[in-house]
Amino acid sequence: MATAIKNIGTIVSGDVKKPVLEGDTIVVSEGKISEIGNAGILGKYEIDRVVDAKGATVIPGLIDSHVHPVLGDFTPRQNTLGYLEGGLHGGVTTMISAGECHTPGRPKDPAGVKALAVLAHKSFQNFRPNGLKVHGGALILEKGLQEKDFDDLAAEGVWLVGEVGLGSVKTPDLAAPMVKWAKKRGMKVAMHTGGTSIPGSSTVTADMVIQTDPTVVSHVNGGPTAVSPAEIDKLIDATELTLEIVQCGNPKVMGYVARKVAEKDQLERIIIGNDSPSGTGIIPLGILRTIVQLSSVSGIPAEKAIALASGNTARVYGLNTSQIAAGREADLVVIDNPMGSVGAGALEAIEAGDLPAVALVMTDGEIRITKSRNTPPPTRKVEVC
After folding, report:
1. Do residues 145 and 234 both lie within one domain?
2. Same domain assignment for residues 97 and 199
3. In this structure, are 97 and 189 located in the same domain?
4. Can you tell me whether residue 377 is helix, strand or coil?
5. What is the rounded CA–CA span in Å between residue 136 and residue 120?
6. Overall domain count for the chain
7. Using one digit for the tens of pLDDT, what is the confidence trace for 41-95?
8. What is the pTM for the complete model shown?
């Protein structure tokens, strides 16, 4: 079954180096993007379904790089049902676990943390709320884990290590060897950074991060306690590490990080997460809100801010999604300027500080949402036929 999205006003690629694509048409087939171009490409395909974007903007599905799920679409942290699918209504098509730390009675022995990681990983492979892709099963590092344990986990498909610091392994002398074991097996490792966020977390300095050498520096803008400018400068200038900005962090520091990295022309280093459920709560539009803040307050062009929450994260985590290019998984979102916005289109609205309207969400080529329950209504009425 092939689907065409036509009459697109702007196609945002998700590639921060080339954020806008030429063309007004996208063809999707067998769950993948087949071609991007102008209306003339439609004659090459047998189209079963047409989405008329009516001049609205198409962006890649957004990725939330920092969630703390448990099992199913429920979180005991905020006693909330359906919070994962809520993110889909904010244009998020993929979520990445930073550790199932809120699991009631979470085991803290090596056998227990391994079992939890395998369970969550395999559970979310089979459970996709309304098509949302959740990469669960992020191992929480606890004392007593041995290198063989990482072989066991890799054999079961586990490829994520939750924020270093969530468990009893908090210092570089304990964490660095485990991080090496994980990365040797192709795992991606996040690390808690900055001040304490909730009871049980701890303060992590830039030097501790550098010594540990994770894949991602989690919530570099604090969680929510601020990281000092000197600490941020060290992470930016002395490393090439991926820096994660989160909605649940410090907004002033978020702006500092964005401007500093933009000045160095290194925006490819930034990814965006929510870090929820947290003490701050659950924010279904958190990724969109962060994009809007980075663009309207920190001066990052809207199309590049979108790339920070899509193509950048996909590249860091090795995912074949969230970039509009032939062969990529067809996770696409149609956005528009909301009714009453001063912006003439979605990108102008974002740069003006307005949340864009989510008019349609697609994952793997299947339309999941045609009207967001969380964003304001779009100016244009997208049609599906």
Report:
1. yes
2. yes
3. yes
4. coil
5. 5
6. 2
7. 999 999 999 999 999 999 999 999 999 999 999 999 999 999 999 999 999 999 9
8. 0.96
